[in-house]
Amino acid sequence: MSAPVTALFRPRTLNDALKMRAEQPGATVMAGGTDVMVYIESGTLKPTAILDLWGCSGLRWQQSITGGQFHGAGLTCTDVLRSGQSHPLLEAAAATVGAVQIQNRATLGGNICNASPAGDTLPVWLALKAEFEVASVRGRRRIPAASFWQGYKKIDLRPDELFLGILIPPLFGHTHFRKVGTRLAQSISKVVFAGRYNPGVDACLAFGAVGPTPMRCLKAETALVAGAAVDDVVQLVREEIAPIDDIRSTAVYRRQVAGNIVRRWLTSL
What we know:
269 residues; alpha+beta; Uridine Diphospho-n-acetylenolpyruvylglucosamine Reductase, domain 2; Uridine Diphospho-n-acetylenolpyruvylglucosamine Reductase, domain 3; Enolase-like, domain 1; globular
């Protein structure tokens, strides 16, 4: 480990976790550790204190609420895949997160709060109109997923708050998830898409890895609901996203692939 960690906090209950967070707002929060440990080993992150939530009860649960679903932040991708109770979009995304070893440790809350634009589950929360629940010793609040990611690696989470869970409201319509990477498995996304379409009612076309934050293509969604031709919707998607050239891909490739994903899905319907 390249940085000396002088304090390690391991709360067992949610109340203890919130108290520790209030007392240690500068501590690095670690859920599954699949990203934090990489950052520490590479020297990118040099924490002096870690708040380890892996053993915290109250963060790893799942329940149905009046037609919707509530997922605890501590649920792992493996938990999602084994439960048989999660939304198909979420299950599809969880299955693409690394290898089995990573899925056994990677948590929903960690994936969300890491705020990587290429995070596999992030567009799913946009497509499902999710709300995120966060808390501190001062109380709880809910934040729409659409406003939680405020910029590259910037989230709406205050220094004394912890991420508790995700609320998915009851929704209808066709859904689709697609991840494009260098390989079919164990690859970081070049483009990741989550879509939901209820003809004549509403739609969501959400992407990751094509901008500084996960994003919806609002103009394309409006056109789709209004009955626009598929080619017109695809063109709007390519105009709305903001991909860049980086070590994994090019902006031109990402824009082309994003449009192809939408076209194939809508044509299949």
